[in-house]
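User: Show me sequence and structure for the first protein, then do the same for the second.

Assistant: Starting with the first protein.
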Amino acid sequence: MVDPSESANSRRFGIESFYCRPGIEGAHEKGGVEGQIGYHRRNHFVPVPEVSSLAELNEMVEQWDRQDDARRIGSRSKTIAECFALEQPLLRPLPDEPFETGRLFTPWVDRYGQIPVRTNR
């Protein structure tokens, strides 16, 4: 079932959400994305950085991003920055209106000690 607000957001912001290309042609995509998330976690967040403010953490993340621009993923011939430079002209501009990235719930604990949120417990 499609959430009506999600389809309205899709029309308003010109996005189509998908996790990877379906079928055989997209079978390689998920592991690559998850692998890069693991790379960042292991190389930047283990051990957990000790900072005195969110601003300090954000500066650290920006520094890591700048360092990663020179990195090559696997045996690719181009760096992350070079690949992004090729892709950047294809990206659409951000919309003027804000995009709600979360939902506010007022959960309650049922008699089994579970908290239902939409279709999950």
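Switching to the second protein now.
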Amino acid sequence: MTLVPRTTDRPAESTPAQPVLPAGTDPLLQLAYETQPPSGPGATRCLSHPRELALRGIPVTCTACRARRDWLLINHGRNVWVCCRCSNQWLEPEISRADFDALIAIPDGTIYPSVEQGLAALGFDGAFAGTYLD
């Protein structure tokens, strides 16, 4: 899975597979296990950030469209990417996983099968380039 193909030339690392419960396990336990939200170091989480974002006192501005607010923050492992409505994305080393966790108000959210489907569903795939959705 490549989160942001424009930030690296290295091949993407594969996400570790979820452990499988042994055959013959209670079907209700199996269903409960399968419907749990992804967690752990291989999980990818997204957070909408409609306000301006300042890093070390400097406001973040999209280099492609000059937007100054309405961001999507994507956390995978220790890295956090910033995504603009115009679909411009970049790795932001100034935002740590702890900073990302501090911004999360609601731990449960919608789960998407892939990052690309999540970007499209949330409107960060370039469809709303040049607009602010409040």
